Amino acid sequence: MRLAVIGAGAVGRSVVELAGEYGHEVVAVADSSSATVADGTGGRAGAGGDDAIGVDPDAVVARKAERGIVGDADPDDALSADYDVLVEATPTTLGDAEPGFTHVTAALERDRHAVLANKGPVAERFGDLRAAVDDSDGEIRFEATVGGAIPAVSTVEDIEPGHVTAVRGVLNGTANFILTRMAAEGLDYDHVLAEAQDLGVAEADPSFDVDGTDAALKCVILANVLSFGAVDDPADAREFTLADADVSGIRDVPGSALRLAAEDGRTVRLIGEATGETVRVAPRLVPENGTLAVSGTQNIVQIETSHAGRLNISGRGAGGPETASAVLGDVGRLE
After folding, report:
1. What pLDDT digit, counting tens, does each position of 251-292 carry?
2. Phi/psi of residue 162, each to 5°?
3. Is residue 246 helix, strand or coil?
4. Are 119 and 317 in contact (CB under 8 A)?
5. CA-to-CA distance for 19 and 213, rounded, in angstroms?
6. Residue 73: closest CA among 111, 41, 35, 25
7. What is the spatial distance between Cα 217 and Cα 87, in angstroms, rounded to a whole number?
8. Which residues does 294 contact at the CB level (< 8 Å), separation at least 6?
9. What gap in Å lies between CA 219 and CA 14, rounded to an integer?
10. What is the third-level CATH fold of 2-148+323-333?
11. Most buried of 141, 153, 167, 236 (most Cβ within 10 A)?
């Protein structure tokens, strides 16, 4: 498959680097201000080669690191390139979910497929996306929007959403790292947050993670999968957005609460839960040695089914190569 990768952050760069290992070829890459597009004559754009039609992954990644751009072309040139699958890996935005939503719908209007790592369009405009898919010969996939490398969406689809009663789990590594450290060391939130920022686990502004927004977006996406997948007519489905989620973060969890929980064999984790009717994210008491008490930056997804009982899938919920593996897995499903 020929890929156009829009977004050159950690995930986008990893997709560019790893695509060849999965048997795919990157023919265009764009960041917010530049692009590189294969010349279509059999050579690599900007590399002078004569035996490949895609862009040179090493050259693109090196140029981004050294100069802050991926090429000399306009970003719109990547959107109009001759590709089979558009990979949308720009940063998540809320509300109108732009520019990611426009990127995806532009691909669908050309009857091309789109694979999203960007949570915004799937969480905030799922109904609009489904309508665009209905008018296109292209499809969308979005495994990478929930839990990084964890195959949460595809597992729900394989079981069939009508046979899944709930999906819950630990879906944010930053919040989980902080709670794990607070419990293990008896430290308060502010102390551990500073440590997490020093280690690069938490952003300078950690609000998206610690306030529960990131976990809530993932649960909204799962709720949409459950709701739309359980009905024959999309008009009968309930569409969820972030505004429909009941969300509490971890800022106000005191170290004393974790110490008291430990005395009772329990701990605290930020748990998100989605059904076809509700979305909730909040700190919850869980058994200290239970399935949901994953440590550090690990994530876990727990799927409640009508006939197969409870399924647990855990792994790395973030990271460039980890999330890129989910993106490329989706590309493989479109072949």
Report:
1. 999 999 999 999 999 999 999 999 989 999 999 999 999 999
2. -65, -15
3. strand
4. no
5. 30
6. 35
7. 19
8. 170, 176, 269, 300, 314
9. 25
10. Rossmann fold (3.40.50)
11. 167
pLDDT, greater one: 235 or 158: 158
Q: How far is CA 39 from CA 22, 53, 88, in A?
A: 22, 7, 21
Q: Give, for 154, the enclosing helix (H) or strand (E).
A: helix 152-159
Which residues, including other chains, have CB under 8 Å from residue 116's CB and lie 6 or more apart? 88, 100, 104, 122, 140, 141, 142, 144, 145
Contact 111, 137 (CB under 8 A): yes
Domain boundaries, given as residue ranges, for the chain: 2-148+323-333, 152-317
> Can you tell me the distance from the alpha carbon of 315 to that of 332, in angstroms, rounded to the nearest whole number?
21
Residues annotated catalytic, as ranges: 218
Question: Hey, CA dihedral for 313, 279, 146, 54, is it positive or negative?
Answer: positive
Q: Using CA atoms, how far apart are residues 314 and 171, in angstroms rounded to an integer?
A: 10
Structure tokens that stand for 70 in this block: 């991926």
DSSP letter (8 states) at residue 73: B
State how far the Cα of 178 lies from the Cα of 134, in Å rounded to an integer.
42
Does the structural domain 152-317 have CATH classification 3.40.190.10?
Answer: no
- Euclidean distance between CA atoms 179 and 9, whole angstroms: 27
Can you tell me whether residue 118 is helix, strand or coil? Answer: coil
DSSP 122: H
What pLDDT, on a 0 to 100 scale, did the predictor assign at position 76?
95
